Amino acid sequence: MKKVLYGLSQDNRGFSLLEMVVVIVIAGILAAIAVPSYLGMIKKHKLTQYATEMEYLVKSAKIIAMERTVNTGICVDSSTNLILYIIGTSRSAGICSGTEFRRMTINATDASYSNISLSGSGASFDPRGLAIWTGNVCITNNEKYVKACISRTGIRIEEGSGGCSSCSF
Fold it and tell me: Is 53 inside any structural domain?
């Protein structure tokens, strides 16, 4: 005689093969929907992370120039390097010369996977916090950009869709 457990015989406990296949198919559909959204969210976060770092570097160049009474330069060295230089006291020195003070580097994985790159003309500040050379620094992932426009008297941050363009002062 077979025991009956909750209205089922002992032989009928568990899941059938058909029930397992249905569960696996549903899980696959959910994964197919969720994974692209998750990857998009990661790409957006990476752009925001580097944009915040770029903005910090540009604003700190102005502050360091005033604190140390020296000229500073923001140099876009390549599509993956943004460097803050302490130029010294010469107003005619290039923005990519002097002593390297800070560096922002976009790692190779983010540059290739998320299409994140830097561009722009760079700029320099004097000890009063005024721009000696005006310009811009822009970071993009070809879908969205964040740009720091450096004018004679201030720094303006712009965001938009698409690629980078020059600033209008």
Answer: yes
Please give the Cα distance from 62 to 82 (Å, whole number): 15
Whole-number pLDDT of residue 162: 85
What tokens appear for 158 in the block? 């712009």
C-alpha 45, offset from chain centre: 7
The three-state (H, E, C) secondary structure of 94-118, written as one string:
CCCCCEEEEEEECCHHHHHHCCCEE
Q: How confident is the model at residue 2 (pLDDT cuts 50, 70, 90)?
A: low
Number of structural domains the chain divides into: 1
pLDDT tens digits, 26-81: 999 998 888 888 888 888 889 999 999 999 999 999 999 999 999 999 999 988 99
Q: Concatenated DSSP letters for 59-87?
A: HHHHHHHHHHTSEEEEEE-SSSEEEEEEE
Report the alpha-carbon distance of residue 110 to residue 144 in Å, rounded: 15
Enclosing domain of residue 39: 15-161
